Amino acid sequence: MADPTDENANTNETRKADVAQGLVIRGGRVIDRTGEREADVAVAADGTIAAVGTDLDLGALGLEGARVLDATGCVVAPGLVDIHTHLREPGREEAETVESGSRAAALGGYTAVLAMPNTEPAIDSAAVVRQILDAGTEAGLCDVRVSGSITVGREGKALSPMGEMAALGVRVFTDDGSGVQDDRLMRRALEYASGLPGPVTLAQHCEVEALSEGGHMHEGEWSSRLGIPGIPPEAEELMVFRDIALARLTGAKVHFQHLSTAGAVELVRQAKAKGLPVTSEATPHHFTLTHAEVASYDPVFKVNPPLRGDADVAAVKAGLADGTIDAIATDHAPHTQEVKEAPFDHAPCGMLGLETALALAVTELVEPGVLTLPEVLAAMSWRPAEIAGIDDVHGRPVAAGEPAHLVVFDPAEEWTVDPARLASRSRNTPYAGRTVRGKVRHTLLCGEPTVLDGEAQR
Predict the structure, then answer these.
(1) Using one digit for the tens of pLDDT, what is the confidence trace for 336-388?
(2) Closest CA to 191 of 236, 146, 238, 159
(3) Which domains does the chain have, with CATH numbers?
(4) Which residues are catalytic?
C-alpha cells in the first residue's frame, strides 16, 4: 500500500510547482465589481494577476510553462469572503478546527473567513488572537481573520482590551452568540471603538435575552402547534432599534449580524435612508428555510436567530435585492453529532454553511430572479470584504497587479448535498439530500490552488 505521507508530499510539490510556473484560467466569464466580460486570467508566479484579456501572449508574460485551468462555462470572480464563521478552535476542536473549517471554506469558494470569538476561551485578548492567526498561517486553506469579543469572556460586564487586539489587525468586534444587553456598556463600546485605528466595526448579535429566554424556535403558529416555546421577532428588533439609536448618538459603525425578521430589515432600511453608519448581513438559511421545518422536531433546524415565517423570508430576500442587507454570511456553526442530536430543547443552535452558501444563493436567489449573479457575488465577496476591513486584499477587481484570490465555479452544475462528503468535522447541515445548482471548480489563494477540480489540495 502506498504511503499516504508520500502522496501528500507529491500533492504539495505539484501545488508549489503550479505557483512557481504560474497559472492561466482560460475560457471563463469574469465577474467583479467593475462588471463582467469574457476573458482569460493569467496568474504570475508571485501570486498576483499578470494579465486579463483574450489572446494573451504567455511568452511575453513569462508564463510559457504555466498550467492551464479550463473555465469553459464557468465564472471567474474574486474569492468569496465570509464574515461570520465559527471555527470552534480553541476549545471545541472535536466539532471543527481552523484547518478543517478553512478546508470547507476553500471548497465553498472562500479565500477569506472571519472567525467568531465565541470559543473556549473567548477571543478576548491579544494572546488568543495570536493563537488563531498562527493556526491560520500554519494550516489554513484560506486567509483566516479574527474578530475579537466586545466584552471580557463575552459576559457583557466589562469591555475587552479592544485596543490590544486592534493593534494585531482585528477590525471587527462582536460578542456573537449573545447580544450586549447593557445599553450603557454598548454605548461605551461604540465610543471607544470610534477612536481605535482601523477603523473598526462593532457587529451585533441582536437578541434581547429578557424576551428570548426559554425559547427554542420562532414564536408563531408552528411553535403553538408543536408546543415548543418561541422567540418573538421583537427580541431581535428591539436591539436593532437600540443600536441604530446608539450609532446615531456616537457616530460609530455598527454591523447587524444574521437579520431574520421583516421588522429588523425595515429598521435597517430606514437607518440607511438617514445616512447612518450601519451595515447588515443575512444567512442562506434565513432566505431558504422557514419555521415549518421544525415540524420534524429535528434539531438540525435549530438555529439562533430561529428560522422565521414566510413573510420574514420574503423580507430578507427583498432586503438583499434593494441593498438594505449588504452581505450574505454563512454563520457556519458546526456541532458534533452527539450534542446536535439531543432533544430539541437541549440541542445547541447552529448549522453548517460554508460549502453550500454559494449554491444556495445561485439556486434560491439568482434562478428565481431575486438577484443577478453579479449582485450575489457582490454580497459574498467585495461587500463583506469592505465590512471586515480587508478590501485592500480581498474582493479586489480581477485585474493585472491585484492579488490572485479567485474562485472559479460553474453556475449551472447540479449537485446533491451529502453530509458525509462535506469537509467539516461535523455533519449538521439542514440541506442533506437537497439538489442545488452552482459548483466550485477551483479556488486560488495568492495564486496557489487550494481547490482544483472540486478537490481540496491538502
Answers:
(1) 999 999 999 999 999 999 999 999 999 999 999 999 999 999 999 999 999 99
(2) 159
(3) 4-76+400-456 (2.30.40.10), 80-388 (3.20.20.140)
(4) 331
